[in-house]
Amino acid sequence: MEKPSYPCPCGGKIKWKKDKAVIEGINLGVFDIEYCPKCGEEYFPEETMEIVERELKKHGLWGIKRKQASLWKSGNSVLLRIPKEIADQLNLKPDEKVILYAEGNKKLIVNI
Q1: Cβ 21 vs Cβ 28: under 8 Å
Q2: H helices of 19-83, where?
Q3: Sign of the torsion formed by the C-alpha atoms of 16, 53, 29 and 21
Q4: Where are the chain's structural domains?
Q5: What is the pLDDT of residues 38-83, one digit of tens each?
Q6: The pTM is what?
Q7: Domain 1-63 has CATH 3.10.20
Q8: Is the dihedral of CA 42, 47, 49, 52 positive or negative?
Q9: Where is 4: in which H helix or E strand?
Q10: Cα 28 from Cα 26, distance rounded (Å)
Q11: Which residues contact 13 (CB under 8 A, 6 or more apart)?
């Protein structure tokens, strides 16, 4: 079966590949994925998204409540307060060490 190809919003052309889907650190398997070689954006087709959604629900990661937090300045540093609900869910304790890194220009990853 030939898979359709169509334009990406960036002006590139969507192509297909088989790739491993890892979301929130959980390996969900290898799926057919639509991707744009120009901008690097990846999209799950409907059949794949149904499987991914089911697996994420099994791991309690679908429909996660998101909380807004504010950044604070302290000296030359920027501080982030983690809401109690999230800290409790992750069993975070004061003085616990974490690893931080930026992913792109607008995403902060915190590994516990």
Answers
A1: yes
A2: 46-58
A3: positive
A4: 1-63, 71-111
A5: 998 988 888 888 888 888 888 877 766 677 888 999 999 999 988 8
A6: 0.46
A7: yes
A8: negative
A9: none
A10: 6
A11: 5, 6, 7, 36, 37, 38
